[in-house]
Amino acid sequence: MESHRKENYDRHHHKKPWGISLPSLNFLDTLRRDNRQFAVIGLGRFGRAVCATLHKLGYDVMGTDIDERLVAQVITDKIASTAIQLDSTKPIALKEAGIFEFDTVIVAIGNFIEESIITTLNVKEFGVNCVVAKASTEIHGKLLKRVGADIVVFPEYEAGCDLAYTLTKPAILERFDLDEENSIVEIRIPEEFDNKSLAELQIRARFGLNVIAIGDGDKYKINPSPLDRLHKNCAMVVMGSNRDIQRLPI
Ligand code: ATP
């Protein structure tokens, strides 16, 4: 990889400013419960997308915004169970709307930094267990963490990185970052692996990667044996360091 491209790759790939650190996994138990109720504060494009998707998945979701037209639109579009107009910088307004009773609150106010910080502080101070906040810049993200946000997301940044990966490595279909250096990726099997067995390809010895599943077009075989053969245009799932994954001929 040319050095400037490698630097970019390292910067974006190894230093993800969002995500959940291993020590804070406890609160993920909240995310696993089925009967969870969500409140989304801020009904811009991001907030509406969160509302609509949670609602489509069958969850109870309340949408709120300071702008009553956006609240009315959410009701018209039927993308939330309820929607209320309120100023989320006012704790009393949040209390009256029952926001503090929700176990997960998404603060989807990206562009109004002060409002976003105050809102996050309010919902955390009044005991909401899981608060997800959208950040527009790195410093905004740091401030959100400081005031207690459990998860900070950078949707534009994340979408930009994903697009760059897709454009430069279209063979990577899915990726799951384990930490700053290691990932699990689902990749399209390259031409030069076609009809070769794992034993012949020596992927662990040559690339330092573990193949954890191989696809046959329909289904995945988990923990494949060394005799299993790979087929081009099918997919496989490998785990290893990002550096080693980059060395695959894809
Ligand atoms: P995107 O479409 O990317 O989500 P946007 O410009 O639509 O961006 P933001 O500017 O991040 O959204 O704001 C999201 C919403 O937050 C806006 O609809 C805005 O009215 C709302 N909002 C801003 N301040 C407050 C507040 N104090 N209380 C409640 N809602 C607020």
Automatic annotation (TrEMBL):
Domain RCK C-terminal: start-end pairs: 171-250
Molecular-function GO terms, alphabetical: monoatomic cation transmembrane transporter activity
Domain RCK N-terminal: 35-153
Domain of life: Bacteria
GO biological process: potassium ion transport
InterPro entries, sorted: NAD(P)-bd_dom_sf, RCK_C, RCK_C_sf, RCK_N, Trk_Ktr_HKT_K-transport
One Pfam family here: TrkA_C
Protein name per the record: TrkA-N domain protein
The organism of origin for this protein: Gloeothece citriformis (strain PCC 7424)
